[in-house]
Amino acid sequence: MKEARSLGASPAPPVSRFFGIDALQKMMKSFNEGNVADYMFEWLDKYGPVHRFEFLNEYTLLTVEPEHLKTILATEFESFEKGEVFNWCFQAVLGTGVFNSDGVLWKFHRSLTRPFFSRDRITDFELFNHHADTVISKIKQRAVEQEPIDFQDLMSRFTLDSATQFLFGSCVDSLSAPLPYAWNSLKSNPPGPIPASDQFAEAFNQAQTQTAVRTRLGDLWPLLELFRDKTKDSMRTIHDYIEPILRDAISRKALTKLLSVEEKEMPETLLDSLLLVTDGGLIGLGLKLTNDERFVSIMIAGRDTTTATLTFLFYCLSQHPEVLAKLRKEIFEVVGPSGRPTYQNIKECRYLRAVINGHLTSAPSYARRALTLPAVGTGKPIYVPKGAGVGYSVYVMHRRTDLWGPDAHEFDPERFLDHRVQKYLTTNPFVFLPFNAGPRICLGQQFAYNEISLIAVRLLQAFEDIQFSTIAQPPESKPPSSQEGLTLAKYSTEKIWPKVHLTIYSHKGLWLTMKEARNF
């Protein structure tokens, strides 16, 4: 560690022995059988907010320290990159899109995407309202049948339809497909072939899960895929689903070329804009998969992250009727019992924003050169060798009691309204990073807030009570009963099993019953 001494730094404490096999086993056990980030909570307790994991020839730092995230994401942004290992793990699914690129290519993707999240575009709520009407109708139908609904599945369809219409100008209309019934319902799911939108959603989830496995194995992941690429079948389904959307956009582009300069309009969607600058990539019938993968990247951001937020938000509301009542009271005062919310209405709903923030919750980078991360407490700076992986978990950081108080693990929207804002957040903004930070901050964060806020308002106008349906949850969806080796079991008392691939989700769905409001 001569280089570390020359930098006046110390290596982070190790969490692994036996060439890292023990730590890798713990990580994979947590991923497959445990709760979200079990191992990181345990290591946080044992080793502090930063530690290192060495597996054979790999050197990876894991941190949940706000000052470290500030360094990685902002002040030393140019010193970190996604890197070859990350790119290798994600290439088959994300291609060279904005989430899987560095340098000039990443800047190109950002500049191409940014104009489509202007205020004028993201404050047009008609798109959301159209799909919200369908969602409300679906829930009412289940209420009449006295059947629960898989809310996670429903929100996945809502966000998918909204995202594809907003970004690609062509709604995939997944909300029109029949919704599943609970595993023990006397009503059966409709016979016949599985709807294409459902096949796409399942393939999307499988591809992300396999990619998450790869990231945990690092550059050894090909050993488990010697005979076949385990994302291949899923990606074929995804490409088959996306292809008609691309063909439609190509047809629009071909027609545009026939127009005079005066008749041509600016690109209406992100897809139209991409086609303008990838003329060689989407010619005729020979669609290049690399372009499909760019859209997969965008759809992960547009569908999965928002679905996760809505799923766990409404789970929390089902467990906290006092929060639900207070939130409905604010909505009725600002918007009314049946009015459609405007952008100004959403801005005025302070408690709604606090409720969303109360829910919002690992991303790896690689060091371009040897450098250090800021010291923790009174210690020395942390040594980061060139080429080392640096992983961080916003999810765990948001649950650190020393950063958020003794109730950090509790769902408490008031923390974003009372004295705790000044005590914890204002003095250290990097403790709360639901949308990342620095140059890679999420371009669609306001779009997401608006979408989440609108559907939440519409649903809470229409339904006055939300109940978690224990009997409808499949037996395999129950969270693990034991947390071997875990000193801080966040979800040991929860009724659902949060798991993670590229985003967090509720294993086997979230089954709710919702009672229609009497004044709606």
TrEMBL record:
Span-the-membrane segments of this chain are none
Q: Which Pfam families does this entry report, sorted A to Z?
A: p450 (PF00067)
- Can you tell me which residues bind heme? 442
Q: Give the UniProt keywords, A-Z.
A: Heme, Iron, Metal-binding, Monooxygenase, Oxidoreductase
Which cofactors does the annotated protein need, by name? heme
Q: Determine if Hydrolase is one of this entry's keywords.
A: no
Q: Which Gene Ontology terms cover its molecular function?
A: heme binding; iron ion binding; monooxygenase activity; oxidoreductase activity, acting on paired donors, with incorporation or reduction of molecular oxygen
InterPro entries recorded = Cyt_P450, Cyt_P450_CS, Cyt_P450_E_CYP52_fungi, Cyt_P450_E_grp-I, Cyt_P450_sf
Instruction: Tell me the superkingdom of the source.
Output: Eukaryota
Q: Which family does it belong to?
A: Belongs to the cytochrome P450 family.
- PANTHER family per record: P450, PUTATIVE (EUROFUNG)-RELATED
Q: What is this protein called?
A: Cytochrome P450
To which species is this protein native? Clathrus columnatus
